[in-house]
Amino acid sequence: MSSDETEGQGAESRLEVRLAANEEEIVAAQALRYRVFYDEMGAKPTSDMAARQSDFDDFDSICDHLLVLDHDRGQGGKAVVGTYRLIRRSVGEAHGRFYTAGEYDISKILDKGGNFMELGRSCVDKDYRTGTTMQIMWAGIAHYVWQHGIDLMFGCASLPGTDPAALATQLSYLHHFHLAPEEIRPRALDDLYVDMNLTPQDELNPRRSLASLPPLVKGYLRLGGFVGDGAVIDHQFNTTDVCVMVKTELVTAKYVKHYDRSRDAQGS
Q1: Which pTM value belongs to this model?
Q2: Residue 138 in contact with residue 191, Cβ under 8 Å?
């Protein structure tokens, strides 16, 4: 295994996860983001984005673009079927800001978060939305976390729609059962703050509430994730955002266990 790539195993071993190697692959990731966020989910592009059929901003030039590739589709950018944007603490601080700070006060993370990284812009081609693809993508994230000694991951995760009342079950469940520890808890900016405590805790069915969440949010929670105080309506992306945080001990432990098992199987 090289320093920035992991091979998928089993039935979908043709899939590869690694960091983007060149501009062509980054452009392909931005085009995939456009198809998912704007064409499928109804986000509102700027005129430049619409003309280029590409989702982009100034964070793209500083981040690491994690990619899932299917080489049966072709070489280079043609192979890109999944992407995640990763911004390490040192990179974001050198840039002067983090994407999440546009919606949340992350000062507690900056003060006590250790060696953290920001996650964002996660999406997968509609023909590849399987558990196997997500496992491969998470293996790539786990290797990145292990390689760079990341202590904490955070970022904005989205629930579909912009009506908090329609999301009362999901938001209330997150507030009552998965609120982040006070010492590192981000808070939605005052002018964007939407109260998540919309339904009393004793009126919720935790199992059903969890099942109703988007797969990505459920994935964070399964890793012991928690959320910040307050939601934010993102009218451009037609979503309601929550700030999700994951301490990486579980992620790293699962990755190291898998890596050690693979190495033993290879006799190395």
Answers
A1: 0.87
A2: no
